[in-house]
Predict the structure.
Amino acid sequence: MGKKSSSETSAAAPMKRQEYEKLLKPLQGELVALQEWVKASGTRLVVVFEGRDSAGKGGVIDAITERVSPRVFRTVALPTPTEREKTQLYMQRYLPHFPAAGEVTVFDRSWYNRAGVERVMGFATPDQVEEFLATTPGVERYLVEAGIVLVKYWLEVGEAEQEARLRSRVDDPRKTWKLSDMDVQSFGKYYDYSRARDAMFAATHTTWAPWYVVDATDQRRARLNVITHLLSLLPYSAPPRDPVVFGARQAPGDYVEPDLVATRVPDAY
């Protein structure tokens, strides 16, 4: 038999948790080194995550941000625009969330809503969508030329796998919050979203802000692949650290520990 493709292999043999955690730990250490380099160098990094519903954007973002400082890595997931925001320039509500020097902004969905859900579900007119696709490359070029490091990921998952994930959210109390009314309304529009994705790539995949497509069939592999790829894009190195020396612990002196039993959380397990 011939060698299986990577997608066939990941579908047949999902990565085990133990292997995943073993591989994730050093990568998260590298993310901490990246964080220190971002702070020291004054880098402004924007990472955009788009993709199919249930493709695992949240899991990837959690893996990236779990061990770094929320004061450096900030995750932005904007709600539905307010009536006031609907009258603004389309990009206007995203720009206040862009990073200052020494910061990373991770967008859990972004201005590309206009090219995706707004297009497919009719929240934007065809003219608005066409204007967005025509002007976004120029806006992103301006951002990059102004010194922003812009990285855009699209997480892709097949139709059958997407359906299985969406259906798993119906009865699992840990996942019900993930199943929005919009997910339900979008359920039957898989190929409308495919067409919207293709048009978005054709218009906004540029040399200065390319799209990177992630096979998210195996969510654990997808997380590791994204982190590894993101790290490869940046010329980071961890700044040197002075040796850490802890001083002596103070003696209690006349301090007496109070009785905290009355206010203690009861043991449930």
